UniProtKB/TrEMBL annotation:
<dbReference type="Pfam" id="PF00171">
    <property type="entry name" value="Aldedh"/>
</dbReference>
<dbReference type="InterPro" id="IPR015590">
    <property type="entry name" value="Aldehyde_DH_dom"/>
</dbReference>
<comment type="similarity">
    <text>Belongs to the aldehyde dehydrogenase family.</text>
</comment>
<keyword id="KW-0560">Oxidoreductase</keyword>
<dbReference type="GO" id="GO:0006081">
    <property type="term" value="P:aldehyde metabolic process"/>
</dbReference>
<dbReference type="GO" id="GO:0005737">
    <property type="term" value="C:cytoplasm"/>
</dbReference>
<dbReference type="InterPro" id="IPR012394">
    <property type="entry name" value="Aldehyde_DH_NAD(P)"/>
</dbReference>
<dbReference type="InterPro" id="IPR016163">
    <property type="entry name" value="Ald_DH_C"/>
</dbReference>
<dbReference type="InterPro" id="IPR016161">
    <property type="entry name" value="Ald_DH/histidinol_DH"/>
</dbReference>
<feature type="domain" description="Aldehyde dehydrogenase">
    <location>
        <begin position="3"/>
        <end position="427"/>
    </location>
</feature>
<protein>
    <recommendedName>
        <fullName>Aldehyde dehydrogenase</fullName>
    </recommendedName>
</protein>
<dbReference type="InterPro" id="IPR016162">
    <property type="entry name" value="Ald_DH_N"/>
</dbReference>
<dbReference type="GO" id="GO:0004029">
    <property type="term" value="F:aldehyde dehydrogenase (NAD+) activity"/>
</dbReference>
<dbReference type="InterPro" id="IPR029510">
    <property type="entry name" value="Ald_DH_CS_GLU"/>
</dbReference>
<keyword id="KW-0520">NAD</keyword>
Length: 501
């Protein structure tokens, strides 16, 4: 038995014991996880700063604060989420109890990415705990400080057998994927997502994949450019653009491009001063490999704003590129950094055509005051989400599902959507031994007749013309009256009374 096999088996034994199923256990573990975040906020923020140079504000807004909010939402709604849901019935099942139960799936594996290493590890974990599962967490090795602090802290607050943390890189992840899980949640690149998907297929394991992609932004000339520029640039500058739902590129007319660039210069100067590298509010690129990848994308580009680089500090200033060709390398992959190319289009129709020719994005942004333009994008494009006149903050709405479509991902999480993702929806029909129910149901028993067929069609609300169904037009009242009469007759006979039919 390998080390990972022992960890997974221990978690499975804990799940099979029923430990994670009761409401009280789930609530207790969520409360303890919340306590961990609140009590260790400064330590967690320090780890995020070490990994990505995140400021306290970004650590709170994009990681710790969002997680506390996610837990509070789960705690407030857990009882109602766990409660069996009534399902719609037909005449055939009108006396039956028909419900949908939410069963935990079992042992869940969460493999997270490095860009929001705390948030992306724990957000799905909250949903999996709420759903009654055991969770094995595999934080990214590219954010080692955050991964280490999770490994240290989680066993102090949560059940160690149910919620272990495993450290390591691709080799350890590959070995871990040899084990059988009941659900796998992965956040990261499409390339690795395909590997995860392939490994899951061997065990027929369901997956949730959040894979990102090139999220477009359409900008027209009706907007308040002061507001629009701030919202767009904040979405691009948070975490130095290393955000899966950051605006990846802008589509607009040449006139709008010029207005945006001029406003962007003012906004960036007001935020970061004359030297962005000296600002305590701006993150760094995660490592040398990603820095080199991003600097390669800047080759043969017309820089309109920014463009300053420092390989020793892994620093790239917010950079806007104009006159970008659709065939340029930066348009062939997700940028995942503080580089924002602008491509010119003449109309929203041309922008929609451009978007629809490419893989479906994780999200899409539309900046306009015209409702008809919003409707064009809503009704003629497909994306994981769409956000009008704002960027990124749709992620913070627990009621909205977060996930991709097609190349940008499979499945969704957040709030109730996380609970549902990590639950199996088990259908249940329960019938009593009531004489009336049995009388109605007896029409399905042999020997069959046209009369029984008529009656069953009436109950199921169907009218199939077999050429001999003459009783179908009869009213439901007459049919039910006959049923009641037969039932009462049977009741009197069973109880020794005279036949009153």
């Amino acid at each position: 038995m390998t080390e990972y096999n022992k960890i997974v088996q221990t978690a499975r034994d804990a799940f099979q014991s029923g430990r994670t199923r009761p409401y009280e256990f789930r609530r207790d573990q969520l409360q303890k996880l919340r306590k961990m975040l609140v009590e260790n906020g400064p330590k967690l923020a320090s780890a995020l700063n070490e990994d990505l140079r995140k400021s306290k504000m970004e650590a709170f807004l994009t990681e710790i604060g969002l997680l506390v909010n996610e837990i509070d939402d789960a705690l407030a709604n857990l009882k109602s989420w766990m409660k069996p849901q009534n399902a719609k019935k037909n005449l055939m099942t009108m006396f039956n109890e028909v419900k949908i139960y939410s069963d935990p799936k079992g042992v869940v594996l969460v493999i997270s990415s490095w860009n929001y290493p705390l948030n992306i590890t724990l957000t799905p974990t909250v949903g999996a705990i709420a759903a009654g599962n055991c969770v094995i967490m595999k934080p990214s090795e590219l954010a080692p400080a955050t991964a280490s602090i999770l490994k240290e802290m989680i066993p102090k607050y949560l059940d160690q057998e149910c919620y272990p943390v495993i450290l390591g890189g691709p080799k350890e992840t590959s070995e871990l994927l040899l084990e059988k899980f009941d659900h796998i949640m992965y956040t990261g690149s499409t390339k690795v997502g395909k590997i995860i998907y392939g490994a899951a297929q061997k065990h027929l394991t369901p997956v949730t994949l959040e894979l990102g992609g090139k999220s477009p932004l359409y900008l027209d000339n009706t907007v308040n450019m002061d507001y629009a520029a701030k919202r767009i640039l904040w979405g691009k500058c948070v975490n130095a653009g290393q955000t899966c739902i950051a605006p990846d590129y802008i589509l607009c007319t040449k006139e709008v491009e010029n207005k945006f660039i001029e406003e962007a210069k003012k906004v960036l100067q007001s935020w970061f001063g004359d030297d962005t590298a000296k600002s305590p509010d701006y993150c760094r690129i995660i490592n040398d490999n990603h820095f080199k990848r991003l600097t390669n994308l800047l080759e043969n580009c017309e820089v309109a704003v920014g463009g300053k680089l420092d390989p020793n500090d892994k620093f790239i200033t917010p950079t806007i590129i104009r006159n970008v060709n659709a065939n340029h390398p930066m348009m062939q992959e997700e940028i995942f950094g503080p580089i924002l190319p602008i491509l010119t289009v003449e109309s929203p129709y041309e922008a929609i055509h451009f978007i629809n020719e490419r893989p479906r994005p994780l999200t899409m942004y539309v900046f306009t005051k015209r409702r008809e333009v919003c409707d064009l994008f809503l009704n003629n494009t497909i994306s994981g989400s769409i956000c009008i006149n704002e960027t990124i903050i749709q992620y913070g709405v627990n009621a909205l599902p977060f996930g991709g479509v097609g190349d940008s991902g499979i499945g969704s999480i957040h709030g109730k959507h996380s609970f549902d993702t990590f639950s199996h929806k088990k259908s249940c029909l329960s019938k009593s031994y009531n004489p009336l129910e049995e009388t109605i149901a007896s029409a399905r028993y042999p020997p069959y007749s046209d009369k029984k067929l008529n009656f069953m069609q009436l109950l199921l609300g169907m009218k199939l013309n077999f050429g001999f169904l003459k009783l179908v037009p009869y009213s439901l009242v007459f049919a039910l009256g006959t049923i009641v009469g037969l039932t009462l007759n049977k009741y009197y006979k069973d109880n020794g009374a005279e036949d009153r039919s």
